[in-house]
Amino acid sequence: MEPTRIIPITTSRSAQPANIIRMEADPSLIRLETVNGQEQLSGGESENAPRFAGEVHYVSYYAARLAETLGMRRLEACILEDRDGQTSMAAGSQPGSWRGSIQTTRRSIKQVLESLGR
Amino acid sequence: MSLDPVISAAASLQRLDGVAGVLLFKGRHTIHRQMPFSETRAEELRERLEEMLAGYRQVRRRIRQIYLEFDGGVLLIVASDEVSLVFFLTSKADPDLAASAGSVLISDHAAALAAASIEAKPATSTPGGIEELVVTSPRALTQITEKAEPVVNQWGNVRKAVEGLLGKVMGRGQATRLIDRTLESMPSQDPYRLPPTEVRKLAAAILDHVPNTSKRRQLLTELEASLAELQL
Q1: What are the chain B neighbours of A81 within 8 Å (beta carbons)?
Q2: Which of A28, A85, A113, B161 could bridge to A101 as Cys pair (CB 3.0-4.6 Å)?
């Protein structure tokens, strides 16, 4: 059996094999990349993106201190829940790169981790 | 208002699968601490978490839950006002289950936690570092003795090992019923409070119910190997 492939929705639909699943990109997904010391934000709603960056900075600062106490190296994922919703973030492969979202609905930790691809 | 029921409830959370440590605090007041590292390190952890949570409180943000997944483990903080319940989880844990149990604990003991001070308990210093213990009644003595016993042992893992072994000679349901029946016949029905030697005896007693002598011997040998792996 052929393996299932996932391709972006924007690619051409011509001659699409049956084993291809077309997935919509998550519009709420925010990316924070650090290139040459400069932070770049992409995705998500315009008001959520800077808030996401603020959340990442605050959590990262304390996570570094907590990791030191626990004898661990780095934070890989975080889900922050308050009465207004959930902020989730997962570390990317490059230092200073994060992806995640700010949601007003509450999901289980398991669901959020799945949505972060973990 | 006594915090003893809260402490007992917090200690019992450690029995959940994959929970390596539990810390309950309110401000600088550590109500319960059972972490797999030194008291100093646990206190440092409390201080840093309290500092982080205080930052959120300062901007009037009511944080309910924080899940922090590090490369070597997870910290799950369930918070309500100034009370924070921290779980230190391994990859085996179900964080949703732990979060739910934590929220229930905080809500069930809301009155006692609300009445608790946020200030650290003063350390009782006595000459020569010897603490005086005043026992007022035989009941209090029993309670103190019970508290001094290890609250959590390896029973959860031993039970899994025994279930695995019984699964070789009987169905899963039958094995579960056999274990439950043996537990019910015990004088003390909480296997988590048993010392390691008693846990070993209990596991062997369950396997003693296997009627076939050669199979029973084989299972008991395998049990020894499993218990050695669990360092019991």
Answers
A1: 63-66
A2: A28
Which tens digit of pLDDT belongs to each residue from A37-93? 889 999 988 889 999 999 999 999 999 999 999 999 999 999 999 999 999 999 998
Q: Looking at the domain B4-118, which fold is it?
A: Beta-Lactamase (3.30.450)
**Is there a contact between A66 and B70 if contact means CB atoms under 8 Å apart?**
yes
A79 touches chain B (CB under 8 A): yes
Which of A102, A76, A69, A70 is closest to A87 using CA atoms? A102
Nearest to B39 by CA among B50, B48, B30, B26: B30
First to last CA, chain A: 26
Across the interface, of B45, B62, B65, the residue whose CB is closest to A69 is B45
Inter-chain CB proximity B70 and A73 less than 8 Å: yes
Distance (Å) from the alpha carbon of B29 to chain A's nearest alpha carbon = 19
**The CATH number of domain A28-115, selected from 3.90.25, 1.25.40, 3.30.450, 2.30.29:** 3.30.450
